[in-house]
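User: If you would, consider this record:
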Amino acid sequence: MFASSTHLKFWTFSGENEIKQLRAETSEKYLAKHASGLSEEERAKEFLTQSEERQLVRHFEYVLKEFCGKFQPPMPKCVVGTSLAFFKRFYVHNSVMDYHPRDIMLTCMYLSCKVEEFYVPIGQFVKNLKGDREKFADIILGFELLLMQKIHYHLTIHNSFRALEGLLIDLKTRYKDHCDAEKLRKIAEEFIDQSLGTDASLIFSPSQIALSALLASSSKEGINLDNYVTGTLLLGSSEDDLQKTIYQVKRIRYMIKNQEPLQRELIQIIQKKLEKCRNQENNPESEIYKRKMEEMIDEDDEIRTQKRAKLNEGRETDHELFGPLNPI
């Protein structure tokens, strides 16, 4: 249930201002560690500004949706929604200068396939990518655990696409004599798809977004659903609750309608700037990262060796106390 979910408790914020503040704190935290001693002007020149970080994240959100649309086998819409939910959550508390959005984007998609039970082996997944597929597989598998850690293992996403499906079923069941529910599907799904380019999923409940999508579709199709909303869907609700719902729907539709266009002409410039200021410890192509991975592997091997030694020592002690376990 959404009302008792980690989605609501930890990943639903009061509004765009709160999210903006959290992102600003994330950026400042990175700069405090990597750009201490520099003036504001020097920081803006050498490191990404908050605006540039936001532009890059939004660009990769668009790339993610495009990639999902071309993915083979065809990717269910709930996987797309979950991928973007993971991606958005990750960059509330993490800077793109720490973790490149290309790497996190691919990892979010791969993880969401598992979470949504759309199983795709890593070999088949990377076949959808151009370039060094073995490298991409290593990157995805290398960042998968980190992604889960950074979003605190909150993997259950209450998807707006599923909420919309529930509303369409309800229309077919309790309002079938008044409208053709399937006629509303296409535009409503397009509305939700547009909402994925905004922070709506970090502010509003899936049911509010789905209802906004349904009403936007009915408006374009010339179908009046006022009686369905007030007399069927929200029957028994107080006037105060009804007004709150209407207000939230208006907020969502305004956000979707007025989202800023992507500044694609700036993306290449921002990415070049990122290559100079990104944390090389988290860059799979850097020597620092490779050495860190080798040290981690060596450390794991050492731990396993120590455990085996202790286990063998325990077996020798047992033999001394009780004699051979399988005497002949």
